[in-house]
Amino acid sequence: MELTLLGTGAPDGLPRPGCPCAACAAALGREARAATAALVDGTLLLDLTPGAAFAAARVGRSLAGVRQVLLSHPHDGPAVEVPAGLPQPGRVPDGRELALLTGHRVRAVPLDAPGTGYAVTGPDGQRLLYLPPGAAPSGLDGTGSGGPPAHGGPPARAKSRVGEEPRVGEDGSDGSYDMVVADVLGRPDALARLRAAGAVGPTTDVIAVHVGHDVPPGPELHRRLAAAGARAVPDGTTLIVGVYEDVPDVPRRTLVLGGARSGKSVEAERRLEAFPDVLYVATGGARDGDGEWAARVSVHRERRPASWHTAETCDLVPLLKEDGPPLLIDCLSLWLTDAMDSVDAWDDDEWAGSGETALRARVEELTAAVRETRRTVVAVSNEVGSGIVPATPSGRRYRDELGRLNAGFAAECEHVLLVVAGQAVSLRG
Fold first, then answer.
1. Is the pLDDT of residue 247 over 80?
2. Gyration radius (Cα) of the chain, Å
3. Comparing 42-46, 50-54, 97-101, 293-297, which segment has the lowest mean pLDDT?
4. Among residues of the chain, what percentage have pLDDT more than 70?
5. Under a CB-based contact definition with an 8 Å cutoff, are residues 92 and 72 in contact?
6. 37: which residues sit within 8 A by CB, 6+ positions away?
7. How far apart are CA 410 and CA 254, in angstroms?
8. What is the crossing angle of helices 393-411 and 332-342, to 10°?
9. How much is the average pLDDT of 233-257?
10. Minimal CA–CA distance to 51: which of 41, 43, 63?
11. Which pairing describes strands 377-382 and 327-330: parallel, antiparallel, or unpaired?
12. Which of 113-117, 151-155, 407-411 shows the lowest mean pLDDT across its residues?
């Protein structure tokens, strides 16, 4: 089954008409995107957008063979003129299936937002899921309208993707789609739901469409998508459904560094928001009576996906040794505070006696657990070495030990990021 993306942008396109933002200003050449529309085997058109016929002609395709036009979402603005020879656009009712004379089958997937998703099965059995902007499948239970059949017990961890491998369907095949075309940036939780249901597996080619100006085009766009196990392609690209295209592996271990209010926690959360059942490990504790701290914690909780779980603990080594879903550790600097408290490292005499040795042993135990872990880990830590030298011996001690901890932890990670003013700079990976 062949898929040609006549457009890959948001409904308003990219750049957005009249928008002066930096992302729109940089959306030039291959980074400019028309509203998303997809042509399947030259016979099925998913979403009719302005200029679809010209877009097809520019990449050597014709719409003359199109026998069905399906709309996936409400189209705002003036009605789009239907090119001569094309059938009138329609929509398949949720849960119903449409069989085309070409051998394609199209099933309507119910969504949690206005619109309809389409699961397309080609004549040779390849499976494609196409979702509209701002929407995720609803009712995902592995056997219902949200995805292919899924059965069996908990699957093993996928080698090249975070999370679970697809479950096995009744026909003996795995339960995942060959390709998913979706609003990965706007609704990363849709991808998480599909992964949890087994509808997206290690070999599913995830293509981001409906791309708007919320993420700067170019390297930043592709970096964010790679972290979700997805990719973007230019308008006019033709893809073969079922032929796996290698996407950079999602790193098993990532360290995100940054100063205060740099955006490091947001960056860390963003790296796992497209995956289900993440365990958020909060090392700061509750701090009863501290209203400002409670407000910070509340903001973090409201930002996390509902499918995530939280553990408030500094006992990281057992979690790293266990099998389980991805860990997001926020943050190592508070873990170090707790570790220094436990060995009384703030006292000069204790530090000179056994405190330093005891703390180094704790750090070595942690980094060894990171080295040996089978779980996906994203950890956050403060980068404090570039600021003012603390005025007290204990302050300088903490700064130095945090620098050593960060360096030791980073040495065990495939990917290390430094976040400055909300911008992530890759130091490794």
1. no
2. 25
3. 293-297
4. 86
5. no
6. 5, 6, 7, 45, 46, 47, 48, 49, 52, 55
7. 8
8. 120
9. 88
10. 63
11. parallel
12. 151-155
Backbone dihedral region for residue 134 (phi beyond 0: left; psi -120 to 50: alpha; all else: beta): left
Structural element, H or E, at residue 336: helix 332-342
Amino acid at 193: R
Q: Which two tokens stand for residue 360?
A: 């180094």
Q: What is the pLDDT of residue 287?
A: 54
Dihedral, CA of residue 362, residue 364, residue 370 and residue 372, to nearest 10: -120
CA-based nearest residue to 209, from 169, 179, 241, 181: 181
CB 80 within 8 A of CB 69: no
**Pair 253, 414: CB distance under 8 Å:** yes
Helix (H) or strand (E) holding 226: helix 219-227
Between CA 222 and CA 215 the distance in angstroms is 10
Strand order, beta sheet including 44-46: 68-70, 44-46, 37-40, 2-7, 238-240
Q: Torsion-angle region of residue 256: left (phi > 0), alpha (psi -120 to 50) or beta?
A: beta
What lies within 8 Å, CB to CB, of 339 at 6+ separation is 314, 345, 359, 362, 363
Phi and psi at 362, nearest 5°, equal -65, -45
Percent of the chain, pLDDT > 90? 75
Helical spans, DSSP H, in 373-424? 393-411
Contact of 5 with 237, CB cutoff 8 Å = yes
pLDDT band at 418 (very low <50, low <70, confident <90, very high): very high
Provide the pLDDT for residue 154: 28
Catalytic (active-site) positions: 300
Structure confidence at residue 303 (pLDDT): 64
pLDDT tens profile 248-301: 667 899 999 999 899 999 999 999 999 999 999 999 755 556 566 556 656 666
